[in-house]
Amino acid sequence: MIRSTMPHVPLSVNHLLERAGRLYPQSEVISRMPDKSVVRHSYADLYRRARRLGAALLGAGLKKGDRVATLCWNHYAHLECYFGIPAAGGVMHTLNLRLAPDEIGWIANHARDRFLVVDDVLLPLLERFRAATNFERVIVVPLTGAPVKGADLNYEAFLDAAPKDFVYVAHDEDDAVSMCYTSGTTGRPKGVVYSHRSTMLHTLAVSATASCSAQASDTVCPVVPMFHANAWGMPYCCAMVGARVVMPGPHLAPPDLLELFNAERVTLACGVPTIWLGILQLLDNAPQLHRLPAGMRMTVGGAALPEAAVRGFAKHGASVMVGWGMTETSPVASISGNKPELLAIDADERIRRAAMAGIPLPLVEARLIGEDGSEQSWDGVRLGELQVRGPFVTGGYHDTPGDPDKFTVDGFLRTGDVAAIDQHAFIRIADRTKDLIKSGGEWISSVDMEGCLMGHPAVLEAAVIAMPDPKWGERPLACVVLKTAASVTAEQLREHLAASFARWQLPDRFEFIEAIPRTSTGKFWKAKLRERFL
After folding, report:
1. Which of 52, 66, 421, 483 has its CB surrounded by the most CB atoms within 10 Å?
2. What span, in angstroms and rounded, lies between the C-alpha atoms of 314 and 336?
3. Could you give the maximum distance between any two Cα atoms of the chain, in Å?
4. 209 is catalytic
């Protein structure tokens, strides 16, 4: 029997920091501050400051495996935490600042966070749950320049006082590097813990997908928050390839983002559909005032993006790539891609496929399981629950009993998403299992119907939910938000849908509302709509 001659070299996020500092020292990290001024750092600064953060944490008593929470917007210091905390052997735990204060406090306690790094602009939020936590040290990032009061530590002073010599804390590749909690729309949030190995493999898998990979020549703006699901892994990908990074801070309104995109010549931006739909409306309404940088690429995830939006951005010279994933999958598990047999497809088909959830990333296995428990074929028609398995797909939750309803005996994650996969391996998400509408024994996809509604020129957003029906079991109700100054009747929307849906599938009822409630991660919160209209 022949044995490999390759040595076992543990995978480590520390390698990314070393690579960024030594290979790409002149690449930039641009951060937009609360007052909209811009602060610039180099990757050489990132390398030096992240290592100083690691040294400072060790000097403050951090032990291997201790959790260090962050309560921060996207900026240079948060990026330093991504690398400095694991460099010291700690586990970075990003707290979602959009959750209710008591829920943030519960999560911090459940994770047993010892230290907290927090923006000074978020101190009022911290004070609303601080008494319920066990933070030993609170380190304040002085974004506004206001003095840090009481026993809290100034982040800059904390770094300045760090021991000069720093050595990475030894670790195994399976040791924890970071953690994030699910949004918890049903029950308490659950913690997912990422390892050095899983993070490195996810970084390599995302970067290997040509449709979304950042390159050294790119300027990348992660609009997606760094406080949720590792900003889709983009901080790690950018450090690996030396891409210039633009951090928007708290300024996420469409006019602010468009201004930043153009000022810094952004070539790749990543965000949820809410962001892009608002930007598209601005571009359509005032093209003489607003534009995108020429040839900009956009990666969209977190929820389905209507095909009409992909077409809309194409008219403005931008290409859109849709991805799919979950906190449990690190988070990207599939993304728009191309295949040799599809290179000659026409523009219309290319856009249709761009609006799908793409193909599985390298190292990700996917399958569809039907209601009867059988595996469904990949014909683009048959629906089943999407289940995935891979080295960066979690097999359980932090400090939580095993959940047989979430994980199969052969290691697949039950995602709760209902999908079809076609012969080219493109995934089409049809719905969440809890959001599918079963009317008269037949399924209706709320996601497909929402996408069609949002293709109407008067509709900004639409969410379709199931309403109990004594005859048919369930019937669809469409909740619609109109564009500014637009008008349309329920009957006109019903006729618009009739071109794509059978008459029996059409909603019996339309509700015109001002806004669709959202979860902390920007997804439609359909449970709130059901509560409202039941």
Report:
1. 421
2. 15
3. 74
4. no
3 state SS for 65-131: CCEEEEECCCCHHHHHHHHHHHHCCCEEEECCCCCCHHHHHHHHHHHCEEEEEEEHHHHHHHHCCHH
Q: How far is CA 217 from the centre of its chain?
A: 23
Please indicate whether residue 438 is annotated as part of the active site: yes
Cα separation, 287 vs 115, in Å, equals: 47
Assign 177 to helix, strand or coil. Answer: strand
Tokens of 180: 């994030």
Report the distance separating Cα 128 and Cα 379, nearest Å. Answer: 51
Instruction: Choose, from 307, 328, 385, 461, the residue flagged as catalytic.
Output: 328
- The dihedral of CA 102, 392, 379, 408: what is its sign? negative
Kindly tell me the burial class for residue 485, based on how many C-beta atoms sit within 10 Å of its own C-beta (0-12, 13-18, 19 or more): exposed
Give the Cα separation of 328 and 476 in Å (integer): 30
Question: For the chain (length 534 residues), average pLDDT per consecutive 10?
Answer: 95 98 98 98 98 98 98 98 98 95 96 98 97 96 93 96 95 98 79 98 89 86 94 96 98 97 97 91 92 94 88 94 94 90 90 93 96 95 95 95 84 94 94 82 86 94 91 92 94 94 92 91 85 88
Catalytic residue from among 375, 438, 442, 495 = 438
Three-class SS of residue 448? helix
> From the centroid of its chain, how far is CA 350?
24
User: In the chain, what are the helix, strand and coil shares in percent, each to the nearest 5?
Assistant: 30, 25, 45
Both tokens assigned to 179:
């953690």
Distance (Å, whole) CA 305 – CA 355: 6
Task: Find the catalytic residue in 182, 199, 327, 394.
Answer: 182
- Strand ranges inside 451-498, DSSP E: 459-469, 473-482
Q: Give yes or no for a contact between 122 and 96, defined as CB atoms under 8 angstroms apart.
A: no
**Distances 249 to 35, 202, 290, 379 between C-alpha atoms, Å:** 10, 25, 21, 43
Is 328 an active-site residue?
yes
Total residues found in the chain within this entry: 534
Is 214 in contact with 241 (CB distance < 8 Å)?
A: yes
18, 156, 408, 443: the active-site residue: 443
What is d(CA 435, CA 453) in angstroms, rounded to the nearest whole number? 17
Positions of E strands within 307-452: 319-325, 332-335, 359-360, 365-369, 384-389, 413-421, 427-432, 437-439, 442-444
Round to the nearest angstrom and report the end-to-end CA distance of the chain: 67
Which residue, chain included where needed, has tokens 């979430």? 406
> What pLDDT does 282 receive?
94
Which one, of 106, 115, 11, lies nearest residue 60 by Cα?
115
State yes or no: is 73 an active-site residue: no
CB 62 within 8 A of CB 280: no
